[in-house]
Amino acid sequence: MCGINGILHLQSQKKVDERILIKMRDSLEHRGPDDKGIFIDNNIGFGHRRLSILDVSSAGHQPFLSNDGRYVMTYNGEIYNYKEFYPELKSNGFDIETTSDTEVLMKLFELHGLKMLHRLNGMFAFAIWDKLEKKLIVARDRMGVKPLYYSFYNEIFYFASEQKALFTAGVPLKMAQEGLEEYIFNRFVAGENTLYQNVKKVLPGHVMTLHEGGKVTTEKWWDLKKEIQNQPKIKNPVEWFRETFDDSIKMRMISDVPVGVLLSGGLDSSSVLASLHHQNYKDIETFNIGFKEKEHNESHLAKMMAEKFDYGFHTMQLENQNLYDQLLSATYFQDEPIMHLSEPHLLALSKMAKPSVKVLLSGEGADELMGGYVRYKALKYPSLLNSIATIGALDLFNKQPRYDKLTRYAQISKKSELVIFNGSNIYPKDIAEIYGINALPKNEYRKQIYKDAKSLYPENLRRQALYFDQHTYLCSLLDRNDRCTMGASIECREPFLDPRLIIGLGSLDDKWLFAGKKWKFILKKAMQERLPNEILQFKKVGLSAPWGDYITKSTAFKDELESFSKSELFQMPYFEHINIQKLVVNLQKGDNRMTPYIMPLFMMHIWMKSYAAKF
């Protein structure tokens, strides 16, 4: 697990500036405090910061060179099944000299080229320079667990694990108008674009190849839609799920350093813990964030689960000045305004875990694979939404935030937009009324994913929403997890995102997901003998926090809220029609329905002040 970066001058006669490469590399020190390295060969340069997980000796040092000197690699991630390739590599004449997955990845590439990607079970982003053919290959894992950003600027190609390394190299930090629009309407920028001009992401499941002459090709090496269509029928889904999930956990326990669990007390993380206990893993430490507000708190359940399995339990609460400080830190590590609003909590949790472990298992992905969000339920009977919209217009039951949100969502009439805006907190009509912004974002990537979802699951809005979220919302969650845990120099692993589970669950009938009151039926069925009823039946909370109260009642945020009301943000043409003073006053009076309108703007204000000003 590491931070990677690199520079390729597209004009071969130009040499890489070592000082810039080192500055890029060391801006990612938090991603890899254990070791550092650089490689420069005229117009190509790689930088690497290492967090040692597998083979903590110097044998795992990077950038990594092939034995014949033809290839150089900088790699971030873990290949969980790397030992499976030992016999094949040895029979093809390769000596295995380390116990690291880095060496296996390099030798598989030497043997098979990019055809080896389909055989990897893991999370990864890597770059390989081919000295013979003078080409650079950059690749990313199936679901985008590991980040990889790039920029073409002044005839130079820069890439890095985080955007801050690109800005450190001199790529200008400029907001993109389309990115800004997506942030407001959709909470985050999906696909290859980012909030910034001249900064893009390598898409999950994609490979880019850059030839020295400047030719660039992009290839999609993993297509979830095709994989689901080609999946053989699963005969006993519950048994299949339980066995595959246990094997996924087992694979993700491969480590030469201690592994712990992010334990919320909800169904997903408790299932991870139950699988570890079932497989007789001992001395596991668990880490939990608690809230003093009862409706947000699951820590009593997390404690019960840890004690039930005789595992260590650590919990904390985050509020006042500590919350404010962690918010600033999380914004720095995130490189963009935070949007899930749980980033400060996850960062603080990771810092608490750091003295005990170097790896954390997370329950991320279960909701998007098996229908765990309440917001999916609105798509079960889309025709009913028209009735709700009518009732909502009469203002009969929209005083509570949840009902208020549903009545606002029900104003959307197009099925495509019901899916595309399902993960939003505020909707186009709200944005027009409150912000004075009427033009919808282009959302080209989201529209393409919706098109794929519709062709895979025709006339099934719930399944379309799951597939859509797997390519959009889940990517933002994985980015959040990566940034917050790596901000504390910890690696995060997601057992639910084993490719066998992703594809298999996508091929199952609706009944395995949407049966029962709270859905995720197959997970509950598979875990019913391992988990107590308190976990199986508990109302989903998730890592949510009462931000409206935090920013209006906490002394740590008092000055910041005053500053926010006068922020230069509202002098930008895009936001000039927003009456921010009115929104803040209404929130201060206790109208929590203002929270979803204020928070994206408040977090952008924090980002402008604490992050953008640094570059």
How would you describe this protein?
The protein has 615 residues and is α+β, with helices and mostly antiparallel strands. Among the domains are: 2-222, Aminohydrolase, N-terminal nucleophile (Ntn) domain (Glutamine Phosphoribosylpyrophosphate, subunit 1, domain 1, 4-Layer Sandwich); 546-614, no CATH class. Helices cover 42% and strands 15% of the residues. It is built from 27 helices and 17 strands. The chain has a 6-stranded antiparallel beta sheet. Strand 14 (285-290), helix 9 (299-308) and strand 15 (312-317) form a beta-alpha-beta unit. It is globular and about 70 Å long. This is asparagine synthase (glutamine-hydrolyzing). It catalyses: L-aspartate + L-glutamine + ATP + H2O = L-asparagine + L-glutamate + AMP + diphosphate + H(+). Pathway: Amino-acid biosynthesis; L-asparagine biosynthesis; L-asparagine from L-aspartate (L-Gln route): step 1/1.
